[in-house]
Amino acid sequence: MGDGPSSPDVPARPDVSPNPDVIIVGGGIIGLSTAWQLLQEGTEAVVLDPAPGTGASHAAAGMLAPIHEAYWGESHILRLNLAASQAWPAFADKIGVDAVDYRRHGMLMAAYDADDKALLDNLGDLHEQEGLPVERLRSRECRAREPLLAPGVRGGVYSPLDHQVNPRRVVAELLSRVPAIAASATEVSRNRVVADDGRVMTCQQVVVAAGAWTGRLLGVPIRPIKGQILRLSGPEGLLRLPVRGVVRGSSVYAVPRSDGEIVVGATQEEQGFDTRVTAGGVYELLRDVLALLPGLSEIDLVETWAGLRPGAPDNAPIIGTGEDGIVYATGHYRNGILTAPVTAAAVAAVVQGHEPPVDLAPFSPNRFDAKPGDHTPDPEHLSEVPA
Ligand SMILES: Cc1cc2nc3c(=O)[nH]c(=O)nc-3n(C[C@H](O)[C@H](O)[C@H](O)COP(=O)(O)OP(=O)(O)OC[C@H]3O[C@@H](n4cnc5c(N)ncnc54)[C@H](O)[C@@H]3O)c2cc1C
Predict the structure, then answer these.
(1) CA-angle at 118, arms to 117 and 122, nearest 5°
(2) Core-most of 11, 102, 125, 359, by most CB within 10 Å?
């Protein structure tokens, strides 16, 4: 937690109100952004989390990439991601662009071999159909933009709209602005939360933003999707651009921060609540990133990590009021850092009874067979929170 606000218009680390209007269960980037949005709009919000900021938000690379995260059949997610991308400049301005290392250099997606190029061409058709602003590049043009790329790359796609941020810094900044209680929720209803330390809290509205753990707490079908990720450290500016690659059919990315850190990710594994870093996971990431960017082989490997993405069966987030009266803000899967500002604004609108800035119908908590409220929380599992 920081020692105070970085921006003069935000009060210093507010005290926890004894009677908050809103209790937010979960202090990852989604819960914290939502609390901050509510506070700015005059609604007293408090976050409840035994270890805020240690979930998926701590693992994330911080790509804000609506274009390179666009997939066939997910137009509604693309629209949400584009709205989030537009919301980021103002969000970053308010927190402090330099404080969170918000960078707008665009992003390059490169194909390693001919089959990888075919995959990229297929996505190119999607970009065209959706009218997304991208530049298709030949091998030489890719290397002109990013000289560290291997000479053999077959081609690529540059997206000027895809940006990046340091999620750990965003979380730290938000934590300094939002009141938080260090406890885990064991029972939740529309206006009441029971915590593992025995306290019972009431409010006007409970919001659940418990990431991958939401499915354990309530009856929405959210599962953890494990991602292993590495942090390298080298000279500042060694890698100019965030680069994503398809390497012999596998996806890999390298995201440079302004201080010389390069984040390399990420595996996608269905392993339940397992956050072990494995030899195989690290091997695959290094194998693919060094094939794409051989010049990274000489710099330091400073961290290995794994986090749990909260995923719904249809890959779309869950935002809105459930049949149980609880407001949900979860399931942000691969794009929770990107979507945080727009989810926060949408949830604040739902709580305050205003029109949300985006159409929330495709993201309703009530779109699944297993409805919110069908589920009895398992106290044994809840005691394992967080990972
Ligand atoms: C390796 C990896 C790379 C990623 N890269 C990107 C990227 O480049 N760009 C992008 O946009 N997204 C990325 N993501 C996805 C992104 O990290 C997530 O979508 C986002 O962090 C989800 O935020 P959240 O607040 O919902 O969840 P989390 O950050 O997981 O926070 C959930 C919080 O809920 C708390 N909690 C759980 N249960 C309870 C309870 N019962 N009571 C109280 N608190 C509870 C936990 O302690 C935790 O702090 C990545 C994810 C991973 C794993």
Answers:
(1) 115
(2) 102
Give the separation between CA 243 and CA 258, rounded to whole angstroms.
15
Cβ-based burial of 159 (10 A; exposed 0-12, middle 13-18, buried ≥19): buried
Residue whose tokens read 């300094």: 176
User: What token pair was written down for 296?
Assistant: 């990274």
Enter the pTM of the model. 0.93
**CB-based contacts of 286: which residues, under 8 Å, 6+ apart?**
230, 264, 301
**CA–centroid distance, residue 280 to ligand 1 (Å):** 23
- Choose one of 220, 309, 381 to mutate for the ligand 1 pocket test, by most ligand atoms within 8 angstroms of C-beta: 309
Q: What is the DSSP string of 90-128?
A: HHHHHH-TTTTT-B---EEEEE-SHHHHHHHHHHHHHHH
Question: How far is the centre of ligand 1, averaged over its atoms, from the C-alpha of 373 (Å)?
Answer: 22
User: Which tokens belong to 51?
Assistant: 């270890």
Contact, 246 vs 116, CB < 8 A? Answer: yes
Substitution site in 46, 161, 335 for ligand 1 pocket (most atoms within 8 Å of beta carbon): 335
What is the Cα–Cα distance from 151 to 239, expressed in whole angstroms?
15
Domains of the chain: 1-101+163-222+312-387 (3.50.50.60), 107-160+224-311 (3.30.9.10)
**How many angstroms is it from 59 CA to the middle of ligand 1?**
8
Per residue in 103-138, pLDDT tens?
A: 999 999 999 999 999 999 999 999 999 999 999 999
